[in-house]
Amino acid sequence: MSAIQTSAPDTSLGRPGRVTYLGGRVAEYVVVLFVAVTLNFLLPRALPGGPLKLFGSPEALARLTAEERAQIATEYGFGDPVHVQFFAYLRSVVTLDLGTSLSDGRTVTEAIGEALPWTLLLVGTSIVCTTLIGIALGVIGGLRRSEGKGAGTLIGAIVVDSIPQFWLAMVLIVWFGVKWQVAPTFGATGPDGVTVTGLAQHLVLPVATLTITGIGYIFLYTRSSMLNVLTSEPVQHAHARGIPRGRLVRRHVLRPALLPVHTLIMLDIGFLAAGAIVVETVFAYPGLGRLTFGAIAARDYPLMQGTFLVLTLMVVLMNLLADLTYPLLDPRTRTGGES
C-alpha cells in the first residue's frame, strides 16, 4: 500500500526567504518587548502607596518634612520626572545595571541571580511532568473518544483545570505536610544544605501543585488535536483500507496531532514561570516568584522592575522560540502561510 498523505507538500522558501521570515518575526518580538518593558516601568508606579514607606513606620514618615522627603526621593531616583526615570530605566536595562533593591540593599541583578536558578529548577521539573502526563492522557483520551468512551476522563480534566493553585497548594500542605508528614512544606533545602535528596523532597509538593493544575489544558488540547486528526479524511480512508489501528496511530496520527501541542508547551514554559509566584509564595520557595511577591509587598520599584523584566523576557523568548522552531517541525508553515 502507498503511504498516506497526511500533510501538504513542502512549499518552503529558499534561504533568503527564510532569513526574511525569521528577521520579520524577530523584529515583531522586539516591538513586543519594548511595549512590555514600557508597561513594566509604568505598572509598579500605578500601585497604591509608594516606596517611601520603606524608610520608616507611617508615624515616622508623617514627621518627615517636605525637604526630607524630597531628599530621599532624589537620592533613590523616584523623585525625578517620569520621563527622566523612564530613560534612566531603559539605559539600565540595556546595560543590565538594574539598580539596588530598596528593601534589602542588594543589587537587583544579584537578587535575581540567586533566585532564578531555583525557579528554573521548579518550572523545568514541572513542565516535564506536566508535558509527559498531559500528552499521554490526551492521546489515550483521544483514542478512547474515537471509540465512544472517555467522557469521565474529559469531565475530570475540566475539573482539575479549574482548581486554583493556592487552594491546591494549601490542601497538599495540610494533608502531606502536616497530617501525614511525608513531605516538607516550605523552603528548598534541608538542614544538611543543598543535597539531591533534600532538593527532591522539597520539590515534591510545589511540583505536584504546578503539575496537577497544568495537566488539564494540555490533556484537553492534545485530546482535541488527536480527534481532529483521527476524523480527518486521509486517516478515515486509511482505516477503511484496513491498515491496523496501531500502525495508523504511530505513523500517521501522532506527529500531526502533537505539532500544535509543541507550541502550547513552549508558551507554557514562560507562563508557568510567571505563574509560579503563587506557588513559591505559599511554599516559601526561594525563587523568582517569591522574590517578586516580596518586592510588590514592599513597593520596591527597582526589584519589581527587575523581576517583571525577567518574567517578561521568559514569556517573550518562549513565544519567539515556538515561532522559530515550528517551521522546522512542520514544513507547511515555512512560508508563513496557512497550514
UniProtKB/TrEMBL annotation:
SUPFAM superfamilies, from UniProt?
MetI-like
Per the record, the major location class is membrane
Is-annotated flag, keyword Membrane?
yes
Q: Spell out the coiled coil positions from the record.
A: none
Q: What Gene3D superfamilies does the record tag this protein with?
A: MetI-like
One GO CC annotation: plasma membrane
The record describes its membrane topology as: Multi-pass membrane protein
Superkingdom to which the source organism belongs: Bacteria
**Which UniProt keywords are listed?**
Cell membrane, Membrane, Transmembrane, Transmembrane helix, Transport
- Report domain ABC transmembrane type-1 positions: 116-322
CDD domains, A to Z: TM_PBP2 (cd06261)
- Give the protein family: Belongs to the binding-protein-dependent transport system permease family.
Protein name in UniProt: ABC transporter permease
In its UniProt entry, the species of origin is given as Promicromonospora soli
